Automatic annotation (TrEMBL):
Domain ABC transmembrane type-1 per the UniProt entry, residue ranges: 20-306
Residues spanning the membrane: 20-43, 63-90, 136-155, 161-180, 247-269, 275-297
Protein name according to UniProt: ABC transporter ATP-binding protein
Pfam family, one: ABC_membrane
GO molecular function: ABC-type transporter activity; ATP binding; ATP hydrolysis activity; ATPase-coupled lipid transmembrane transporter activity
Species, as recorded: Tannerella forsythia
Subcellular location: Cell membrane
Membrane topology of this protein: Multi-pass membrane protein
Amino acid sequence: MNTLKKFQTYMGERRVLFPLALIASGLSGLMSLVPFVFVWLIVRTLLGVGGTVASTPIGTYAWWAVGTAVAGLLIYFAALMMSHLAAFRVETNMRRSAMRKIMDMPLGFFGVNDGGRMRKIIDEDSSSTHSFIAHIMPDLVGSILSPLTVVVLLFVFDWRLGVACLIPLVAAFATMGYLMNPRMNNFQKKYLDAQERMSSEAVEYVRGIPVVKVFQQTVFSFKRFYDSIITYRDLVTKYTLSWQKPYSFYTIIINGFTYFLVPAAILIIGRTGNYAAVITDMFFYILITPLISSNIMKIMFLNQNMFLANEAITRVEKLTDYPQLESSAQPQLPQGYGIDFDGVVFRYDGAVQNAVDGITFSIPEGKTYALVGASGGGKTTIARLIPRFWDVNEGSVRIGGVDVRQIDKEELMSRISFVFQNTKLFKTTLRENITYGCPDASAEAVDRAVELSQSREIIDRLPDGLETKIGTEGTYLSGGEQQRIALARAILKDAPIVVLDEATAFADPENEHLIQQALHELMKGKTSLMIAHRLSSVQTVDRILVIEHGKIAEQGTHDELLARDGIYKTMWDEYQKSVAWTV
């Protein structure tokens, strides 16, 4: 019932429609039985059961049978209309609620939740609630009332035939109890996990198809995707086979009322000799008992459908149950743009080792610092603590003397331009991509950003210029070109703090030179922190921090670090060898 309460919360102002739909569906189920009673009365009248041979009521019975059947259908249609309106509102509100929460998530959330998984949960799991609310629950009310009413009628008309009908009914319920034991929920949980994993890996596989084709590999070479398919197949196959015999028996017995009614009717006729009355009742029973089997089949899967619906809403809520970053009750404004790390310790959820271990350094306003070091040393994590991808476990990160946790989120983001290693351009026009952070920017400001980011030649060679669409049904740019467009976006934003995460990582030599020029313009007069593997890009920065195992191993200018003959000197020598290397 807790699941239904959650659904009613998402129904909003349409929550009143759901109970009305259940009532209408129940009434429709009862109405569907009435025509059978009138057909039984017609047969009794024709056969003269009870000593009455009258043709007058037959037409009346027929019209009542047709009228109640039509009325039942109209009521059922109204029930479905109301349940569908409620179901659509639940889907919409679940998606809206999830997207609102995701928009408020810290940026670190998107590093641990891939797009395929989020799409599957928000889109497919929200959609999976539709059938439960629009069809299963309304049908269930009728499915419960109809069989109960039929069982009562079976004993009212002829209790002896009613007892005969109880035999397959009891056997069916016993089998249903065996099938619907707690292992069903365990299977459903494993099934949904396997489905989610397969969906996530499928998205990753599709993204990697170019690499798979280049190296002439097959799906088998993409081990995680292949394993997820095999896991799903084995899980479903094993469970299906476990149902094979009991479900076959259940299907036969629940549809086998006739096998018990006919012998019972013969025995009753042999004892009473009342052929007409017994045959009339048996005809009615054979006509109406299929309603029991069809409705019980719906009841049989109630537990499964309830679990799936609850699991769907739980997964959506669990996705958005990521720890939110606390907002200060009294936010403060930074009094400058210098950056201070003071005894900062940070570790990822579930990790034992610190990713950042007691880091302390200061970047004076308007200066440029660089982080270098081996991959996995903690450079990116340090940089991402500035815009609050996550909050530190110990110590503090300050901007202009104010702890970033005391700065309003929107205010904090407005003061930082973050250029990622993996550039993200939206599938829209170049103009909209560049002005994403400043939608009201003037044409002159956009042109200036294009010039300073060294993107003019990209724009000029495209027939539609800034109105050219990116991606599907549009133009595709190289990695270096995308990075320059991203830099144009950052230049237009003109934030006083710039954080660069491997901005030239995927650039060819020509693009790297142009990107370096764009970076120079972007960082001019700004407080900047850059992460670089290509050491040539950090020679002129104000200070270099060598990061190793989450700590500062060395720091100083390029020349100072070379003179120390330490880690940085070793890195520089290796870098020089790589630059000089030829085939």
